[in-house]
Amino acid sequence: MADRYTIIDMPAAIAKQERPTVTLWNRLEGRPRTVNFERAVRFEIRDALWMLTRQWQSGEFEGEDSGSPVSAQMQVAFTRLTRFQPGVGPYEDFENKLPLETRVEHQPVAFDLSGNKVALDLRVMLGRRWLKMVSNIADYSDAFIGKYKIDLPDPTRREDAPICAHPEVWQNFAAVAQRTMDGAALYQYLVADSTRHPYDGIPALDAHKPALDLAGQQFVSWVRRLLTQPATAQNPSWRPARFEHQFSCAAPTADGEVVYTADEYHHGTLDWHSFDIDPNAQAGTSPATTADPRKFLNREMIPVPLTYAGMPHPRWWTIEDSQTNFGEIRPDTTDLAKLLFVEFGLVYSNDWFIVPFTLAAGSIARVRRLVVTNVFGEKFLIEAAGRGPDDAWQRWSVFTVNIKGRDLAEADPSLLLLPTVPKVQESPPLEEVLMMRDEMANMVWGIEKTIQAPDGRGKSGGNAARETRAYFERLLAAAGVAPNPPALVNEATIRYQIMTSVPENWIPFIPVRARGSEREIELQRASMPRILEGDVSPVVKVRPRTTLLRVGLDQSTPQSYLIPEEEIPREGLLVTRSFQRTRWTDGKVFVWLGVRKRVGRGEGSSGLAFDQIVPK
After folding, report:
1. DSSP secondary structure, 508-553, as one string
2. In whole angstroms, how far apart are CA 322 and each of 309, 328, 352?
3. CB–CB of 505/451 below 8 Å?
């Protein structure tokens, strides 16, 4: 009986592919069988045929009818971003004098909150700066400290609870009260009206007034350089109902203009992936700008091979740097991205070339023509890999921007190079709010995990809530208010409880019907009552202490705060507000207040319940 595994005619069997065999490997790694690696690292070779078989095994003898590129001729058309629109406001000129993140994210710095002075650290710093600036003119320190003083909080007043309820905050205010100038008060006075003078209400000599006016202008400019703030009371690009920024940028093109819109920017990493092209938007670029909208650059360069750390060497028997151990990469069958990355690193690592091209920040570039010449003198016209319909499901590209709408539009292969920075330093959060769903209570809670204390530092919201309640209880005890008398003694083993309580840093959001809709639901900010044992005064509503949740409360006519129901997913949201700092291309430093939105921690329960029968 003939052996079924014996091949009589090997060339015929290979040509017909009678038996499936693996005849090609892209990587071979030796595995020593002993603990001692001394002999293994010698790499002893005694048989030249063994070397030839290994080369055949890894496909080294497979011929390719291609040559390496030696030159590339490019024609690039580019334009510049000229218009910027924050939110739904009017378009304005686009400027590269500051990073785009700063212009989009900057929030106003709150010096007053609910009628109380906050940001003590900034107030003291600005005051010291002003006194230092006017020290060369005359000694007006006592006059300015008396005019713009920091009052000492009264521990017996309910209105001073945000300061006096927290011992460390009260100590900071007591240390500088009546001794240090409030520089923020002077700054707010000067910027409110351009006709005001810093010496208003100060017995200054007429000879010193011009120098004081000049110092006032320099002081205002210094504060604006120190902290980048919006010109209005609120950043127009900020959408508090969705905890996101919305803005647009536009540039002139040969056909008119192109508008890039960012509808949901919240993660703090601003780049091309934050934008979509809106073909229906109109930025209104001026005719002078669209007269010559496109500029062309023709370059001829030498392509260079793409290299990266740990890259497998293309030549056989070449020692690698061992910075990346590809043998330890163990992708699962569903890890398509990891499998593609490994295949790129092992099989196609030496098939990529780079053609350097320098562009200015804030520009839009499009390769109109790319002709590559190889070592055989052949010329090839290279087309964009992401060409074709924008909505084609087979299309996959990187660094290209999607086009809004469902119409069959041609993909835009342009490269959007934004004036952004690679690194932004972030301070510890001044405010941190956790938006959490509570299905048992059928509502959403805004948990103030971190609040900005009046002295300017971040403070635990839970600790601040407990200290505030204890402060009001001490005021009642000091006023001689006794708690309610105990209930009548009886033999009942149960009692009726109207409702349970939650910490004061838990702000409720209740579902309401959306305006103008019969089916959509919105989440409206509500409040919990502060009920103190023995307090006969009117019940006070607990208000949020973070600017993130105080939307509409500090206006002359308080407004309700509504959040679309779909904005709070099951996993919740974690919203933080902190200082951001970066350095721009000209060396200037920019500091601003920014907001970040991240994924929350899932659902939770507050324990809030009504009409309960509980054990006595």
Report:
1. EEEEEEPTT-SS-EEEEE---EE--TT--SPPEEPPP-STTT-TTT
2. 9, 12, 21
3. yes
Count H helices and E strands in the chain, helices first.
12, 29
- What are the φ and ψ backbone dihedral angles of 42, each rounded to 5 degrees? -70, -30
Phi and psi of 361, rounded to 5°? Answer: -65, 140
* Torsion, CA 338, CA 340, CA 341, CA 347, rounded to 10: 140
Which amino acid, one-letter code, is at 313? Answer: H
Name the token pair of 259: 């508008």
Cα separation of 424 and 271, whole Å?
Answer: 13
3-state secondary structure of 482: coil
Closest among 476, 457, 392 to 122, alpha carbons compared: 457
- DSSP for 117-158? E--HHHHHHHHHHHHHHHTTT---HHHHHHHSB-PPP-TT-G
Cβ atoms of 416 and 275 closer than 8 Å: yes
Q: What is the pLDDT of residues 371-387, one digit of tens each?
A: 999 988 899 998 888 88
Task: Quote the CA–CA distance of 423 and 365 in Å, as a whole number.
Answer: 24
Q: Which candidate, 529, 535, 543, places its Cα nearest to that of 474?
A: 535
pLDDT tens by residue, 20-63: 665 566 666 666 777 887 777 776 777 778 778 877 777 777 76
What pTM, to 2 d.p., does this model score?
A: 0.81
